[in-house]
TrEMBL record:
Residues 1-20, 379-407 are annotated as: Disordered. It is found in: Cytoplasm; Nucleus. Residues 390-404 have a biased composition (Low complexity). This is Prolyl 3-hydroxylase OGFOD1. InterPro entries: Oxoglu/Fe-dep_dioxygenase_dom, Oxoglutarate/Fe-dep_Oase_C, Pro_4_hyd_alph, TPA1/OFD1_N, uS12_prolyl_hydroxylase. SMART domains: P4Hc (SM00702).
Length: 501
């Protein structure tokens, strides 16, 4: 005789299955971590800043103290199941000036058995162990997420410093990995101003290996761009919170020098600029469009023969290119102006000339020259304008000249540089830039960008200060002069150029 199960019995069975599915799988840590003698030796070595290793645990203090624990999770099965659960999560594309990768939701409340088990182990016994090693009381705050780095993903130079963060950790769950795959954790040495200088150590991700370091004014690091097209750099990372280490006053970079315009008349415009842009009626149309959108791109700006001549000259070996940093703010090469070929110098002087300032005024309606009338309702602050020029291009193709202008009282001044862009080049938003933000007219004239695609990076993004809102993106295009007006709440950066370029 077959009996029918009641609905209450079925519901009870389902609840038991669900409870079993979500029960926590206890994570057993590396035996070396649970060894009291290892903990005591680690604490002493960390306090003295000396190298130390035993079994699966290693402490290296160059360029700053960091600990590497191999086989962090005991038992291959737990790590494999953890990896499986993580890969089944929803990941979100994260991209800004500093990084590009995919990140999971916060793992703080995830109920998957192995994720919950790892979280319990990290923020339970391991936090207690780490607090004893560092000699500090770590808080109960749980700060943990999962990241997937795939082809061309990157996390650029930063120090992790944020109020409350005391130690950072990364647990790798990766396939067999080589340094040629990219994705290494690069550690930077710093100078006397606590600014990062050069990479002195690169850690290759390794299965079931945990890396941790104390967050400090010198803990600058990056995740190098992933070059492998078929491997996934999967990691669980986060921070242990506690009292922050003392931070020295932030180093303030000197401002770029600004110089008055050069006394050049309109003949320099006739020699260099596409005649269509010298037509008064066309200038009025440009101004009308610019006033509507605060930006415009003027295609085929230079005469074709001049653009070609400068582009070829920028390839000459006589130009001295200097790498500009520090890497937590920028990475590109700038040309020494006194080493430029003659035609490039002439082009540079065009953008710094009085005649060009007046032309910019006609294009934009901004008071960049004393001959330009001021609007009756013009705000006093908006009467102070700056135009900043940059160079664009890759080191294997070419670079471009740019220029700048500022109206302060009745004396325009300018600043700018000729820049060479190549794989790995970028600029980052930083506190110093936000403090110096001003009303500005930016100029950008790229060379050597034929065939450039947006997926390469290298484009200029304008964003609202302290917000994720992207206001404008300017893509490099040969002989296309970009003019962008920005206010004090608008910042810009050049997106990291990946190896596809």
């Amino acid at each position: 005789m077959t009996s029918k199960r009641t609905q209450d019995e079925l519901d009870h069975t389902d609840k038991r299955k669900k409870k079993k599915k979500n029960c926590v799988e206890l994570a057993k840590l590396c035996p070396d971590v649970e060894d009291e003698s290892v903990k005591r030796a680690m604490k002493e070595a960390w306090g003295c800043g000396t190298h130390w290793s035993q079994g699966n645990v290693e402490l290296d203090c160059d360029p700053f103290p960091h600990c590497i624990i191999k086989n962090f999770l005991s038992g291959q099965t737990f790590a494999e199941n953890l990896q499986r659960e993580l890969l089944e999560l929803n990941f979100h594309e994260k991209s800004n000036d500093l990084y590009k990768f995919k990140q999971s939701d916060d793992l703080k409340k995830r109920k998957e058995p192995h994720i919950a088990g790892l979280r319990a182990a990290l923020f339970g016994p391991f936090r207690s162990w780490l607090g004893d090693v560092l000699g500090v009381e770590l808080e109960n705050t749980v700060d943990i997420s999962c990241a997937r780095y795939e082809h061309t993903d990157v996390l650029l130079c930063h120090d992790d410093e944020l109020e409350g963060r005391r130690a950072a950790f990364i647990l790798y769950l990766v396939p067999p990995w080589e340094s040629s795959d990219g994705g290494t954790l690069d550690l930077y040495a710093t100078d006397s101003n606590f600014q990062p200088q050069s990479i002195v150590k690169s850690l290759v991700p390794s299965w079931n290996t945990l890396v941790l370091f104390e967050v400090s004014p010198v803990s600058f690091h990056q995740v190098r761009e992933v070059l492998s097209q078929d491997k996934c750099r999967l990691s669980v990372s986060g921070w242990f919170h506690g009292s922050s280490l003392e931070r020295p006053p932030r180093y303030k970079e000197p401002s770029l020098p600004r110089t008055p315009h050069l006394p050049r008349d309109e003949t320099v415009l006739l020699e260099w600029v596409n005649p269509v842009y010298l037509d008064i009626s066309y200038q009025e149309k440009i101004q009308e469009e610019f006033e509507d959108s605060s930006e415009i791109q003027l295609k085929d700006f230079l005469r074709e023969e001049k653009f070609k001549e400068v582009g070829e000259a920028l390839q000459q070996a006589q130009i001295l290119w200097t790498k500009r940093g520090p890497p937590n703010k920028r990475c590109f090469e700038a040309a020494s102006l006194d080493t430029l070929p003659e035609c490039v110098t002439d082009c540079w002087e065009l953008f710094n000339s009085e005649a060009f300032f007046l032309l910019l005024s006609n294009f934009t309606g901004l008071r960049l020259h004393y001959l330009c009338p001021a609007d009756d309702d013009e705000d006093e602050e908006e009467a102070k304008q700056k135009a900043e020029g940059e160079a664009a291009g890759s080191s294997t193709e070419s670079s471009a000249a740019g220029a700048s202008t500022e109206k302060e009282l009745s004396t325009p001044v300018c600043c700018g540089s000729i820049r060479r862009w190549s794989h790995g080049g970028y600029t980052l938003l930083h506190d110093g830039e936000a403090e110096k933000a001003e009303y500005a007219l930016d100029l950008l004239l790229p060379f050597g960008c034929t065939g450039w695609q947006s997926e390469f990076g290298g484009f200029t993004c304008y964003v609202a200060n302290e917000e994720d809102e992207e206001l404008l993106t300017v893509y490099p295009e040969d002989n296309s002069l970009a003019l962008v007006y920005r206010d004090k709440e608008t910042l810009k950066f050049v997106k990291h150029i990946n190896h596809k370029s």
